[in-house]
Amino acid sequence: MKSYTMDLGGRPLTLEFGEVCKQANGGLLVRYGDTVVVVAATGTKTPREGVDFFPLTVDFEEKMYAVGKIPGGFIKREGRPSTHAILTSRLIDRPIRPMFPEGYHNDVQIVATAVSVDPDNAPDIPAMIGASAALCVSDIPFLGPIAGVRVGMVDGKFIINPTLEQFKVSRLNLAVAGTKDAILMVEAGAREISEQEMLDAIFFAHENIQKICAFLSDIQAEIGKPKMEFTPIQPREDLVKEIEEYGAAKLKDALMDANKLEREANVDKVKKEIAEVFLDKYPEESADVAYVIQKLVKKIVRRTIAVDKIRPDGRALDEVRKVTCRVGLLPRVHGSSLFTRGQTQILNACTLAPLREAQVIEGLGPEEMQRYIHQYNFPPYSVGETKPLRSPGRREIGHGALAERALLPVIPSEDVFPYTLRLVSEVLESNGSSSMGSVCASTLSLMDAGVPIKAPVAGVAMGLVKDGDFFTILTDIQGLEDALGDMDFKVAGTNDGITAMQMDMKVHGINREIFEQALAQAKKGRDFIMGKMMECIAAPRKELSPWAPKITTISIDPDKIAKVIGPGGKTIKKIVEETGAKIDIEESGKVYIASPDSDAVEKAIQYIDGLTAEAEVGKIYTGKVTRLMNFGAFVEILPGKEGLVHISQLSTERVEKVEDVVSVGDEIAVKCVEIDSKGRINLSRKAVLQGR
User: CA 15 → CA 31, 33, 131, 134, distances in Å?
Assistant: First the structure.
């Protein structure tokens, strides 16, 4: 076993090779604090037949035993991956994918299993570093190493891989991955930080990434296997030249169309025509002909944008497509919006509910209640396709999490707005950056619902196309520019700063100059979109929807919670049944009462006040006679609280029998005249009748 250690963020990062995963192409144990991750990289010896892409699979496995828990539910084993596990898989996949040679079509699988987790050392970054290390020492032709770190910002200072307590007060949660030369991936959530602060944080992260990459390179040089040889698809040069001379001009004309569906139809027609001509001439080279035609499409688009500075739809490089907004279009929904930008359209619905409906997050971190939830759906009709409807995939979960992260800093606190909020973005049409469209649509529906958000949030997707020494940065990229470009860079924020960012590269990273220009151009695009949103609705509505629950918060003595709940929950069930309101009680004594009917809320408040109130000497109550005794009558003056009216205090005149004056069920006015040392309440009807 070989063990290597370096300092990372003031803690030892240790990589152990040779003892585990010996039948994988590369494997190791990663230790960071008390967090331990097993990582294995495996690849096939031959390419997958009939594919023109790199089949990479990355799986991050959460094991509940890693934090001393047994999985909940009937089946006591881990089931489908949690949202956090899926997002971690994506976090590892995105910087690794561009680091394989073009034309390498062998299956590669990375499996990272968290087997011990220390809350102060999250397993995602160790898993990413472990994946890079496993690939480096394997015979798989990986062009790394890559590495990643998290950055927090506390009291204006950047911190590498913050602890749990540091994250609670951090203005920034930034994950960055890259090579020793450039940035490959960025994932960030922030509390309205400036472009300059974000830029400084990213390159602070890169300084540490360079150290990790040097560490991994030294390990690879010492114990790495020789890389396997492979032969990428290489069509004949004369075939490539012949197809280009025949079809380049035709394809360029077909590609220059602003309408996605018309452009795709025209391009397909030209591609089919080119294929027919060359398949007649070279029937045995059908795969090469198809490959060359597709590469020619990419080459034309990239050169037209990077060198000629012309976009397929004719827009200026920094121009946002036409934006239209609507709110309140769904009458029975608590808040709704329709956001359209070019050929991307999002319908968003906001639902408000009591805090009891918050989502319980149970995983390798501390259990928490999530009261703000954003979900994203991408049906096949949104891109004109027919496919079976499935449960959300990794892409949908990732896009939903990005939009959720963008809006989280502006969601009002539980004290200000005691609601659970669920936002659902339905993509009705897609041609580029539906995730940023979801950010805008969510902001609109939150304001339509009357949620007092701290500030509106808008988002925009940026692109990059490099051709040799030429490069062009694009604002509000459409699908074609995303698919054939080199960067997908999404930025969301308020007028005061960035709240979320996500960047993925298809090339081996970008430098600071490109980053600065992209951030500045993104700010301009965000401002334009924000202006269009504000024309639709400038501030949250003053009143909630009539269909939304009205939630009122009251406080009671924590010692009296048991009285409100009652034995086996009997009392609180009775209140809910009689009033129709939903009631949640916290250990602190906070009581949340929810109902669309304000009368129901008021009735529940009165009931709870009665249960928790104390009788006061000298106060007059209207109570109900509950029991008759020879010596007097018992009267309930508050829910669950009885007092005795002695026979001598029932009337201004002498009373022979209690039954002569009152009956069970009568409502009478009584005065509290004494509460004795044992808490017994003595009442007087006589004092009320005499006006004393």
Answer: 6, 12, 11, 10
Collect all residues with Cβ–Cβ distance below 8 Å to 210 and sequence separation of at least 6: 180
pLDDT of 509 higher than 90: no
457, 406 Cβ separation under 8 angstroms: yes
Tokens of 554: 């009251």
Cα–Cα distance, 256 to 210 (Å, whole number): 41
CB 11 within 8 A of CB 65: no
Rounded Cα gap, residues 177 and 509, in angstroms? 10
* DSSP 8-state class, residue 53: S
Can you read off the two tokens belonging to residue 33?
Answer: 């604090």
Q: Identify the three-state secondary structure at position 598.
A: helix
How high is the pLDDT of residue 528? 97
Cα separation, 650 vs 656, whole angstroms: 11
Sign of CA dihedral 149, 151, 157, 159: negative
Residue 364 CA to residue 121 CA, distance in Å, equals 11
Q: For residue 219, report the phi and psi dihedrals to the nearest 5 degrees.
A: -65, -45
Name the strands in the sheet holding 458-467, side by side, starting at the edge strand that comes first in the sequence.
157-160, 147-154, 172-178, 183-193, 497-505, 487-494, 458-467, 470-475
> Which of these, 148, 80, 626, lies nearest to 390 by C-alpha position?
80
Helices (H), 260-308: 260-281, 286-306
| Cα–Cα distance for residue pair 640/614, rounded to 1 Å | 11
Q: What is the pLDDT of residue 435?
A: 95
Per-residue 3-state assignment (H helix, E strand, C coil) for 229-271 = CCCCCCCCHHHHHHHHHHHHHHHHHHHCCCCHHHHHHHHHHHH
Q: What is the DSSP string of 515-531?
A: HHHHHHHHHHHHHHHHH
Q: Which residue in the block uniquely carries the two structure tokens 């075939």?
A: 239
Asked if residue 447 lies in contact with residue 544, where contact means CB atoms within 8 angstroms, the answer is no
Global pTM value? 0.84
The confidence score (pLDDT) of residue 191 equals 95
Contacts of residue 160, Cβ cutoff 8 Å, sequence gap at least 6: 8, 9, 10, 149, 150, 151, 205, 208
Residues contacting 24, CB < 8 A, separation 6+ = 40, 41, 42, 134, 138
Task: Output the CA angle 344-348-349, nearest 5 degrees.
Answer: 165
Q: What is the DSSP string of 164-208?
A: HHHHHH-SEEEEEEE-SSSEEEEEEEEEEE-HHHHHHHHHHHHHH
Q: What is the mean pLDDT of residues 602-623?
A: 86
| Spacing of C-alpha 283 from chain mean position | 50
Quote the pLDDT of residue 49: 84
Dihedral (CA of 232, 237, 238, 240) sign: positive
Cis peptide bond prior to 412, omega within 30° of 0: no
Tokens of 260: 């996605």
| Rg, C-alpha atoms of the chain | 33
Q: Are 553 and 590 in contact (CB under 8 A)?
A: yes
What is the mean pLDDT of the segment spanning 58-74?
A: 89
Question: Nearest CA to 188 among 200, 172, 203, 177?
Answer: 172
H or E element: which one contains 218? helix 195-223
